[in-house]
């Protein structure tokens, strides 16, 4: 984000005043300060340093078990089987979402002169997308998870299908040396969702694209940084800054970045082709439960064939681009 000079000055004043208040509070014994934020990545680093907010706790959306607890609290007279079914259907919702839906459904039932029924809530929490879209999402997310296990990226913490027609695979990336091989592994894992769609369904959706946190955005950022920030690519030991959009105006760099991402998708496709039965079975299971925790995911991922695909195993992939005039691709 680019701020105008006067806005930067105002922001700096606000942050400085906030830090002064935090430092004064720190001198008061027994005082605990708790802050919440939906976008912690946008917080000024000075606010988060040791001595201010020492402990950072992520609160992801509740899983099916946690949602069962929310339903049990709101509907204590209903059977456990019904409440667990509703908990599974509501994956992707927050606790506040569930509470609001129950209150609205109760009001509608009262207006109709009857009691609230499980079917009232099943209709509300039915997935808005059809089974075909759910399957695409499940394949996409399981593709990420399988590539993660095959390449040793780190343990998978959670896989879920969200109600808005999207999904999420949460991993705890293991520390790496930052070599070119490490970055190529990460690129393959990021592109594995798209590769899974292509492998099983024969086409791809826009699911890998979208905003700045999308698969394509992350892959483009890494591939560009290889050449412009990390000294591992086209420009050798040179640092060209963090402006990816500006850097990608260079046709030679743009072609290399595109080729690197295409090769990552092809590599991911080979890994998934070697694990295709597992990919499809795991996706079917995710469609049923809609949310896998670390233990459930690991039970499936123990079957993953580690490393790249064996020789002779290939998968449908993109058509590789050619190197621009002036040199071979990295």
Automatic annotation (TrEMBL):
- Pfam families (alphabetical): AAA, Peptidase_M41
Question: Which GO cellular component terms are attached?
Answer: plasma membrane
Please give the InterPro entries that the UniProt record associates with this protein. ATPase_AAA_core, P-loop_NTPase, Peptidase_M41, Peptidase_M41-like
- Every ATPase AAA-type core domain range: 8-61
What range(s) does the Peptidase M41 domain occupy? 135-287
Sample GO molecular function, one term: ATP binding
- GO BP terms, alphabetized: protein catabolic process; proteolysis
Highest taxon of source: Bacteria
What is this protein identified as? AAA family ATPase
Organism phylogeny:
Bacteria, Pseudomonadati, Pseudomonadota, Alphaproteobacteria, Rhodobacterales
């Amino acid at each position: 984000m680019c701020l105008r000079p006067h806005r930067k000055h105002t922001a700096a004043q606000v942050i400085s005043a906030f830090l002064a208040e935090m430092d004064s509070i720190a001198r008061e014994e027994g005082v605990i300060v708790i802050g919440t934020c939906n976008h912690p990545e946008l917080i000024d680093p000075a606010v988060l340093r040791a001595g201010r907010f020492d402990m950072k706790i992520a609160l992801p959306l509740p899983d099916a078990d946690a949602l069962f607890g929310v339903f049990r609290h709101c509907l204590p007279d209903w059977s456990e089987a019904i409440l667990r079914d509703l908990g599974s259907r509501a994956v992707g919702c927050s606790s506040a979402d569930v509470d609001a839906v129950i209150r609205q459904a109760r009001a509608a039932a009262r207006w109709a002169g009857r009691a609230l029924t499980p079917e009232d809530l099943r209709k509300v929490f039915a997935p808005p997308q059809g089974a075909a879209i759910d399957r695409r999402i499940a394949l996409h997310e399981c593709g990420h998870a399988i590539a993660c296990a095959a390449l040793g990226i780190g343990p998978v913490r959670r896989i879920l299908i969200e109600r808005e027609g999207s999904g999420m695979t949460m991993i705890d990336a293991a520390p790496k040396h930052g070599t070119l091989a490490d970055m190529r592994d990460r690129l393959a894992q990021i592109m594995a969702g798209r590769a899974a769609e292509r492998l099983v369904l024969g086409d791809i959706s826009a699911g890998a694209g979208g905003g700045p946190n999308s698969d394509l955005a992350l892959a483009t950022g890494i591939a560009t940084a290889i050449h412009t920030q990390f000294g591992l690519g086209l420009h050798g030991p040179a640092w060209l800054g963090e402006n990816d959009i500006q850097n990608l105006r260079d046709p030679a760099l743009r072609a290399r970045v595109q080729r690197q991402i295409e090769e990552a998708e092809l590599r991911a496709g080979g890994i998934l082709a070697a694990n295709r039965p597992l990919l499809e079975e795991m996706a079917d299971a995710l469609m049923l439960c809609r949310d896998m925790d670390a233990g459930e995911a690991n039970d499936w991922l123990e079957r993953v064939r580690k490393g790249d695909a064996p020789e002779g195993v290939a998968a449908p992939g993109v058509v590789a681009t050619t190197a621009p005039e002036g040199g071979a691709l990295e």
